[in-house]
Amino acid sequence: MRVLQVAPLWETVPPPAYGGTEAVVSVLCEALVRLGVDVTLCASGDSRTSARLHTVYHRSLRTAEDLADAAPYDWMHAALSLREAQGYDLIHNHAGELPMAMSHLVDVPMLTTMHCLITPDTRFVWDRYRGWYNTISDAQRRAMPPVRGGRFVGTVHNGIDVESFPFSAEKDDHLLFLARIAPDKGTHLAIEVARRLGMRLLVAGKVDRADQDYYRDVVEPLIDGEQVVFLGEADSARKRELYRRAYCLLMPLCWDEPFGLVMAEAMACGTPVVAFARGGASEIIVDGQTGYLVDDLDAMVEAVGKIERIDPVRCRRHVAEHFAPAVMAGGYLKAYRAILDQTAKRRWLAPAPALPKVKDDDREAAAIA
Fold first, then answer.
1. Which of 129, 94, 108 is nearest to 19 (CA)?
2. Count of alpha carbons within 13 Å of 81, Cβ hemisphere only?
């Protein structure tokens, strides 16, 4: 099987720090290659992969701050990635609606993984999409608005490279918040939980340009450098160490996040998670066994007080059983085969093309021959 994986050009694969989609794409490509699948990854030139790498630009757009307008590079990335698709069995699109819009120009089936939510404007593309799609949680599927285009092939949960996350049963006494510093992630709520409990909180995450006001006006005044410590964006090695030592991870989500990778990553290190029961959280956390699912701030404070009941070994085992690379790759291989079977049947059932009309003199020439 030959599969073309199209990643966003905005971040390196795998990402050095923040980049959930790109982290998932990296884990998937490595797992598929190990299973013998012929994989080409379309991504930025600074990406690292065991698959064949196809790139149109030498670095991720996130690092290209000198570009006045990065969009044209993204357009060319989508166009030249799909041009590579000839000769492949399937295109697996992780880059959103732009490759979906261009999929009408190629005769190769496309699977789009919904890493983001559909907006009123992107729905225009979804309504006209003729390929297949999957969600990364059942909650995401339930929240999805009805669209006229696309064919659903199921839910495939994200996976992480479990072995790369260090396990520790021994924990320090501080709490951890690791995510984008943004209103929808509830950074201010995590700080409130720490204050009510009188516990130290380490806050690690990037501040996007769109969230600068939230950070400056809401979060920064709450950071005292002692009880609440802001560490900035954590790279791959730093976040693993933060997960490993934390008493628990707080996820006071203020939106229905389809899948929070940080929850699986923390549990892989043996660190329980306390999260608001929104989005895909209930598909990642086993309530009372690998952490707690709660409905409000008071319940989150109460749940932290019960963390010692959670077995770190159980946390690690749960992630290895449900979110390991091989599990995710197996789910996608099942989806790939279903798509290829449907494509083959559709072509087989399609009416045969009409034979060209033969002129009388052509018949005479054929008879003589």
1. 94
2. 35
Domain assignment of residue 46, given as a range: 2-159+324-349
Domain co-membership, 6 together with 155: yes
32-66 per-position pLDDT tens digit: 999 999 999 999 999 999 999 999 999 999 888 88
Does residue 171 share a domain with residue 155? no
Summarize pLDDT for 140-167 with one digit per residue, the tens. 999 999 999 999 999 999 999 999 999 9
Residue 301 identity: V
Please tell me the total count of domains within the chain: 2
Are residues 67 and 201 both part of a single domain?
no
In this prediction the pTM is 0.90
Nearest by Cα to 178 from 136, 120, 235, 222: 235
Mean pLDDT over 186-207 rounds to: 97
Question: Apex CA 11: angle with CA 73 and CA 162, to 5°?
Answer: 150
Check if the beta carbon of residue 160 is closer than 8 Å to that of residue 166.
no
